[in-house]
Amino acid sequence: MKEFIISHQEEGQRFDKYLVKCLPKAQKSFLYKMLRKKNIVLNGKKADGNEKIKAGDSVKIFFSDETFEKFSDEKTSVKIAAVSDEVKLDVLYEDDKFLIVNKPSGMLSQKAEKNDISLVEYVNDYLAAKEEHIKSTFKAGICNRLDRNTSGIVVAGKSVVGLQEMSAAFHDRTIKKYYICIVKGRVSKRVHIKGWLRKDADVNKVNVVKNIPQGAGMDDYTAIETEYFPVCISDEVSLVKVHLITGKTHQIRAHLASEKHPLAGDAKYGDKTFNRYFKEKYGIKNQMLHAYELAIPKAISSNMNIDNAADKDNAYINDTGEMCIRTNVPDGFIKVLKGENLWQHGTQEDLEALH
Questions:
Q1: Is the full-model pTM beyond 0.85?
Q2: What are the backbone dihedrals phi and psi of residue 308, each rounded to the nearest 5 degrees, phi first?
C-alpha cells in the first residue's frame, strides 16, 4: 500500500485526473475499476473519480510494489532540470498560487520540439530548486504565451487552482495587457483600431484586413482589436504603448504594420531598410516588442499580496482595485531611445501613466 497526501499545488483538480498523473502508464478503465473495487480510496472511502481533491486529502493505493512501479513513471515528480545555471529567472511576483516572471527575448514560452528547453522548464526548475514541487504530481504551467523573440511578462500557475484562475482570466480578457514597442514613423495620437486576422500556417504568418473580403469564409478570419498611445516620437521613430485588447498570433506586429508603423527589428512584418538601420547602429536583431504591464482583475488580485512583488516600485493597486505589475524598460529599448534622442526626463513617468 502507498499513501499520498495532496499538496496545495495539486488541490482543485478532479481525483481521476490526479490518478492519471500519479499512474500515467495505467489505462483509465483500469483506474476506474480499481476505484470501484476500493483498491484506490480517497480519505479512506470509496470514490468514483469525480471528486475535487483538496490539500491534506489522503490517497491510498493498495497495489503491490511491483504493480505500482509498472504503472507509475519516474517523471511524475518534477525533478531539477539542471538548467538553473544557464538562466536566472527575473521574478516579478510570487505567492503560493502564481509566479510572474520577465521572459527574456530568445526564450520559448513553451516547447516547440521534444528536446527544447522553454520557460516552462525554467519555471519548474526554479520551483524544484526551492523543493516546492519535488514530491508533487503537479507541474507548473504558463497562463499566457509570448513569441520567442518578444520579451516581457509571463504568468505561471504554481498550483492547479492558480493555473485555472489565471488562464481563465487571460481567456476571458479580464486581464489588461500592455506592451511597449518601437515603430517606424510618427505616431502623434492615441489610436484604437479593429480588423480581421487570417493565419497562414504554412509560413507561420498572419494577414490583417479592415474588412473580410466578399465571398471569404468567416471561419478563416478572427476579429482583432488593438489600441496604442504615443509615448515619445520623432518624424522617423516612435515609442508606443499598446493595449492588446484581443490576443492573437503576431497581432501587434501585423496590426501596426498594417497601419504603416512596422516594429523595428521585425523581419517578418517589418521594413527591411528600417531594420537594417537599427541592426547596424544598435545591433537589434529581433522585433522591439516587450510585454510591459499587466492589470490583474480584482476578483483575483484581492487574494494577492503586493508585498510579494519583487520590486515595490513596479507594483501597485489602481483605482478599480486591480493589481498592476510591470517591468523595467529593457536596456535595449533605452539604448535605442537615447540614441534617437527620444528618451527625455519624464519619459518613464509618461509611460507608466498611459492607460
A1: no
A2: -85, 0
